[in-house]
Specification:
By secondary structure, the protein is mainly β. About 0% of the residues lie in helices and about 55% in strands. It has no helices and 23 strands.
Length: about 350
């Protein structure tokens, strides 16, 4: 299973509070599995978790305006049946002759056009559109769709897209968005992102995992997973082109039937010992063949060695595995936009 460079992005910087391994619901039977493997050819071991305070939630009634787009937060909820996630309802008004930046949402968003005509460009991924007459059609990028009053669209976390209003009248959209706590309402990609681009495709192996399964039929999975692997940096230009780097990431996972959210710390290490580190937050979706696809967003927090001047940045982590967690390697792609290089 191969993903494109921008597949599945999920979910901007959040680092979960400590997960207590072995603490399931009261009365639930639990099974704990601990596996440890070799550290891999690189010899790099897991890094200590970084502690990051989640950003405060946007409040209902708050308004954000930028470049012809006005987003009003209508309601905010933290559903009991979706711990660690936040549900937003918003109204988005797009001024005439306004084009949004290329972006994705780090969770599932449902949107309905209340007025106007929205030109909707899909860069990568598939969106489901329901027309005002009830007709349903899937659009797979790269493609463009026109959305009119009464039309609705389902945007998954794998969808890279942007909208534009080419008319002389405003477009008004109502949205419902479910994302991890602390994640941004949207995450820019492509030319909209500042910083030096660093791209690492890598095959990762799970070197250790400490997992608890509980609940009915053992469908709930919580615990820690360490992934390590290396690859050659591609398409970044300058001194980083063609350089080998190792990715080491420690994940806190929370899955139900293979689907769920995760938070992680990551370190990209280079042959001279320099590093770039960050935190990640994302989601995993189980596939029918027993594997999974996953993706999330990265917040760069700093660097060491020749990268000690790093002041921050953003990124996307995407990938897939062909089998169950720990049973197969993971095909991944880490794309950073690093400030201070």
């Amino acid at each position: 299973m191969k993903l494109g460079p921008r597949s599945l992005s999920a979910l901007a910087v959040v680092c979960a509070s400590a997960l207590v391994i072995g603490s399931g619901p009261v009365g639930a039977s639990t099974t704990r599995a601990h596996e440890t493997g070799a550290s891999g050819a690189s010899g790099v071991t897991a890094t200590a978790p970084l502690t990051v305070t989640p950003a405060p939630l946007p409040k209902a009634g708050s308004v954000v305006k930028a470049k012809g787009v006005t987003r009003t937060i209508l309601a905010v909820a933290e559903p009991d049946n979706s711990p660690g996630q936040v549900l937003y309802m918003t109204r988005v008004k797009i001024a005439p002759k306004t084009k949004l930046s290329e972006h994705f949402h780090s969770g599932v968003q449902v949107a309905r056009v209340e007025s106007g005509v929205l030109t909707y460009k899909i860069i990568q991924g598939t969106a489901t559109v329901t027309r005002s007459n009830g007709a349903v059609k899937k659009f797979t990028g790269p493609t463009t769709a026109s959305l009119r009053k009464g039309d609705s669209i389902i945007e998954t976390s794998s969808l890279v897209h942007f909208g534009s209003n080419k008319t002389n009248k405003p477009v008004v959209i109502i949205t419902a968005l479910l994302i991890n706590q602390g994640a941004g309402l949207s995450t820019p990609v492509g030319s909209a992102v500042a910083g030096t681009r660093v791209v690492l495709p890598a095959e990762l192996v799970i070197t250790s995992k400490d997992i608890v399964t509980f609940g009915v039929n053992g469908l709930n999975t919580m615990g820690t997973v360490v992934e390590v692997g290396s690859g050659i940096l591609e398409g970044v230009g300058g001194s980083l082109t063609g350089v080998r780097a190792t990715l080491n990431a420690t994940f806190l996972v929370n899955y139900l039937s293979g689907n769920g959210t995760w938070n992680a710390t990551m370190t990209m290490s280079f042959t001279d010992g320099s590093t770039i580190s960050g935190t990640m937050s994302g989601a995993t979706i189980a596939t029918k063949d027993g594997g999974a696809v996953f993706g999330g967003t990265i917040g760069v927090v700093g660097g060491t060695g020749i990268y000690k001047g790093v002041t921050g940045g953003t990124g996307i982590y995407t990938g897939s595995r062909a089998g169950a967690l720990g049973a197969t390697t993971l095909q991944t792609r880490t794309e950073l936009h690093v400030l201070g290089l």
